[in-house]
Design goal:
Length: about 120
């Protein structure tokens, strides 16, 4: 039986309030650069391997492969963004996130939904 996670709409994922809420969660979870990779990869891949689908707002399936986290991070394999975003845990971002980061936010959103701890704003 196939199961699916419906990911938060792009407009909300790129919203400053979502970035702030994600940053708060990353700080609470003491997420590190390396820790983010070791959290995202097995969470997403195990879910997918068990028949799970990541579904976007247009009801299209997001391609999940062994490189999904690397693609989401633009192949910037130091994962420094995970550290950089945490500064927004104490202050609200002034701008929307750029669309090029959508997959990154979708992966984070999906992972936290999979473990039943969705990010809410």
């Amino acid at each position: 039986m196939t199961k699916g996670i419906i990911i938060t709409r792009a407009a909300l994922l790129l919203n400053p309030a979502y970035k702030h809420a994600l940053a708060v969660r990353l700080v609470e979870d003491e997420m590190t650069r390396e820790g983010s990779f070791h959290f995202l990869m097995p969470t997403i891949l195990d879910f997918h391997d068990d028949g799970g689908l990541l579904i976007d707002e247009e009801l299209k399936t997001i391609v999940v492969d062994e490189n999904i986290v690397e693609r989401a991070y633009g192949y910037e394999l130091t994962y420094s963004w995970t550290t950089d975003i945490k500064k927004f845990a104490t202050r609200m971002p002034k701008r929307r996130s750029p669309a090029r980061l959508l997959l990154r936010f979708q992966v984070w959103d999906a992972a936290y939904r999979i473990i039943d701890r969705p990010i809410t704003i």
